[in-house]
Amino acid sequence: MNKHLQHIINQLSREGKDYTHFKSLLDAIKASGLDISKDEILEFVASDYRIQLHTTPNSIAKLISHLAQKNNPQSAIDICCGTGNILYYLQNEIDDLTGVEIAENVAALTNYFIPDLHIITADSFLYPFSRKYDLVVGNIPFGMRIEMHGKRIPGEEAFLRKAYELLTENGRAIMLVPYSVLLVVLFQNFRKEFVSFIEEIITLPSGSIRNTQVKTAVLVIGKQESKEVKITQLTNFDSLEKEYQNASSVTYPNEKLLERWDPEYHLSKESSFYKELDSFQTKELQELADIIKGKMIPADTLKELGDYLYLKPVHIQKEGLNTESALKYVSKADLTEKDYRYILQPGDIVISTIFNDLKMYVYQTGDFPAIASNNLAIIRSSKQDYILSYLQTDEGKRIFKTQAEDLRKGVTIPHLSIKDLASIKIPILPIADLNALGDATISRSTEAQLRDALEQLNDYKNQIQVLEKEKESLTSLKAFIDNRFNKVESQLEVMNKKLDDLLSLLKELKTDFEQIQKLPREDEEKLFKLCQKIDAKLDTVYNKEQHTIEGYIEEIKRWLDLWEMLDLQSQKFLPIAEFIFDELSKLQDADYAPFVVQYCRTLENEILKKLFEVYHSIGLVNVDREELVKYDVQNQKTGKFAQMVKRNRLTYTLGDMNFIMALIKHGGNTLNESSLLQHFRAFTISYFDEKIVEAEFLKDVNKLTNDFRNKAAHPYSISIDLAKECQGLLRKSLNVFLESVKDKKNE
């Protein structure tokens, strides 16, 4: 923070004035005569835990300003202007500017940055606008439900409709929206209605919204109908405007975008891959096979031993089935007659329906009897010979996998629906062409063919043995040894250099911890600073040690059944933490605090992404937030949670989430008195098994938070024994949390 701004805030606090009341803060800044920039003020209000008022990032505001210049608008309005950052960059291009902001406190901030702005302090949906505008802009609030024209509709849709209503005859709306508007079913009717008015879709990189990985897009909506839509994908957050000016865009007829607007889906359909696929005669997979979704069996009914292995994606490895760890079984007595269709048969193809990397396996005669879990799909067909042969070729796998990856949905849990799986196209090839696709056809060869191949291979083997004997001279042996010696020596030098670099990095992290631990700040503030340092330095480790990290991932899969369900950030946090643990163990008297913080971040991220963010985006969609939290905002225990729900903030820390979850245990006094907690508990147990709100799990999470993670941010030295205890407890908690996710989360 700017030191002058910090001084002003400290002075206000000493005078008993509330710096979160922006008029007081701004008056003090004016009185000081100090040069404090817009960006410094906005960074402060976004980062201060009492305010956390997010604004449209400069890069997005500049991009929208650039897009706005296309039709030379004479008037513009931001219908949810917040701190006015979009209007700030428009003021040099348009004289007639209006902003609408419901909060007077925030409006004061906006007027400070843009003194001549005409600002309306009102609800955009209730205010009686008397005019239209050439340009409507806005950074739409996410996850709200709004009354409009007698109906409660998603807030994103309401703002888009309002923007369209306020346009002049040839006007345009340029709106920042969550990526969900482009593809989820909730907005399907809106997309069909407005597809003729969409001029352009611009997708932005993840992380455009502060402290989240929520994907966003910019929609350009015209008042006049258009027959085509321009699609542009941007990846460089820091220079969106510049990238847009140089980007290659694709134009589509709008009739192609009736169902989905997400560019990745449509751009993939235009690729050379799909053009190649269209050159074949194809059939959908459902025409050639039955597609059966695996059975959901509650974890508490599974057994350590039984008649059928409960097969999960984690058991499918490149070399075959892994039947050494993470095994659970189903008893025949627990199955009904209808359940027998889920029992795998020889020749069944099983594939993972949740995945970052698609897994596929052909069930063999001699495999342990197994029943497919709910995160697997079974491909079973009377035309199995063809399907089997095709999907065991390299080319067949490539064609199948490419389509599956393009069809999968979801960011938190990437998954493939049974409907989409059934629609995958399979080329129908002559047998001769099919056999030529790859050497995997060996598995379908006749005994005679295999014996011929074996005889030829034996001939080659004998020839090699003869050559080896001829070359066994001292000279060649010496040359070989010298060569090996030089290579080994060179590799050792490389490894020693990498080790030195890593040890240096770990020492830097230790110093960072010591500095942060001395700061007179609250726990969560220190942890935020600490995590920023970890991220910056460990990204280097992740990139340099990619091969090593992959080894850790394989080890993790041995104790974590549901690796595929992890958020992508968690799939990065966890192996890096294990890597840090091993490297710290090479040092004498090492402090394991960096490992503990990084390890705990995995659970923190999973609970945030799969419970709290989903609660905000789904659980609160049809809810009047003001009404829900009105009795909680002043409550000492639930007040912070209520404010986050009310303002749709997603800045929960592990400490916050641990505290909130502890309050929703059955029978608590606070729970009985709080409508918000009751609503949150009902939502939680509708998506998760009740064990995550029971004493054992909550006790473990509390211990991880207070005994390990928080201590790591204080001047405590974490010993290897404490680190191992944290390691075991987190593994247990992470498995429990992921296993508690109910089946409908994957649909």
What do you see in this structure?
With 747 residues, this protein is α/β, with parallel strands linked by helices. It has four domains: 3-47, no CATH class; 58-269, Rossmann fold (3-Layer(aba) Sandwich); 282-437, DNA methylase specificity domains (Adenine-n6-DNA-methyltransferase TaqI, Chain A, domain 2), CATH 3.90.220.20; 503-746, no CATH class. The chain is 48% helix and 13% strand. The protein contains 29 helices and 22 strands. The strands form six sheets. It has a nine-stranded mixed β-sheet, sandwiched between helices. Strand 1, helix 5 and strand 2 (96-100) form a beta-alpha-beta unit. Helix 1 (3-14) crosses helix 2, helix 4 crosses helix 9 (240-246) and helix 25 (654-663) packs antiparallel against helix 28. It is globular. It starts with a helix and ends in an 8-residue tail after the last helix. 35% of the residues are buried. Residues 436-450 have low confidence and may be disordered.
